[in-house]
Amino acid sequence: MNPLRNLHLLPRLWPMLRRHPQLALLAVLLLLGWYAAELYYLRPQLSYLGTPQATTLHPATWSRTLRNDGFLLGYSDLRSNPLWVSYKLTPVAKDAKRLKRPQRFKRDWRTLTMVGHDDYRGSGFDRGHLAPNYAISRLYGRGAQLDTFLMSNITPQRPKLNQKLWQRLEEIEVDVFARRFGSLWVTTGPIFDGKIERMKSAMRVEIPDAFYKLYAAPPKKTGDAPQLLAFIIPQGVKGTEALDRFVVSVDEVEQRTGLDFFHILDDQQEQQLEAKQGGSSWRLKEVANRPGRY
Question: Mind telling me which InterPro entries this protein's record contains (predicted)?
Fold first, then answer.
């Protein structure tokens, strides 16, 4: 449970805390204990080899880490976009429930810009999930599914990207990659170039130029290196392109986002792995032209 979800109760508790300073001290200690648990235990369970870190002090790469049920994200209030989202996939059980998709997205009270469902209306952009409804709902349940419909998990995507190519990749990561490796870590987010473009329907929402996906399959033997695969996919795709057309190195993603991924790795190993473009273990060509559901 996240105590910050109950901040609305603070005005009611404040008079009692003033009358009983011992309770106020206890509340402070409990809050510090919660934050330590959040920072050193809960968040690391939702990311692999460290949460993404900004490589510069530029405001465009600033984000606040928000923990949800089943996934973690770094939200930029300046851009009204999540800059990165991290989640873990495992094979979906055959008897996993298929949950009904919510009809509307919800504002996330933790964000400053408070983007809502209707801000995207008439914009020409889809409300693009980064932590996907399909995989998260089947692996982590209803509460996690509802968290994927918070607007802090949403970014503007062109319909052909969101409904075709992005959806194909989301299916393959859980139905193919997660089964092949047993477990799979995904880090994904938007890429912005130097020219700032904002949605006309909501000027506080910046429009990304492309999106990245990073896959990391943990090693099965101690001492082995993880398997990495990276994509950069531009907004203007037709949606029917072969997926292997968009494979890049992790280094390229880092250069274009200003973020450092997998920074807990040994420096030499990190440099070697992040310079490569995937590997044969992913067998990407077998599914590169796999059609989507739509």
Answer: DNA/RNA_non-sp_Endonuclease_sf, Endo_G_ENPP1-like_dom, ENPP1-3/EXOG-like_nuc-like, His-Me_finger_sf, Non-specific_endonuclease
Helices 267-275 and 250-257: crossing angle in degrees, nearest 10, is: 100
3-state secondary structure at position 73: strand
Catalytic member of 8, 58, 117, 129: 129
Q: Is 68 annotated as a binding residue?
A: no
Instruction: Please give the torsion angle defined by the CA atoms of residues 186, 128, 99 and 5, in that order, rounded to the nearest 10 degrees.
Output: 80
CA distance readout (Å), 85 to 11, 33, 168? 33, 25, 18
Confidence (pLDDT) at 15:
75
Which pLDDT belongs to residue 30? Answer: 64
**H or E element at residue 181:** helix 178-181
Which fold, 49-286?
Extracellular Endonuclease; Chain A (3.40.570)
CB 261 within 8 A of CB 214: yes
20 is catalytic: no
Tokens representing 122?
């008439």
Q: Which residues of the chain are modeled with pLDDT < 70?
A: 1-14, 16-17, 20, 22-41, 294
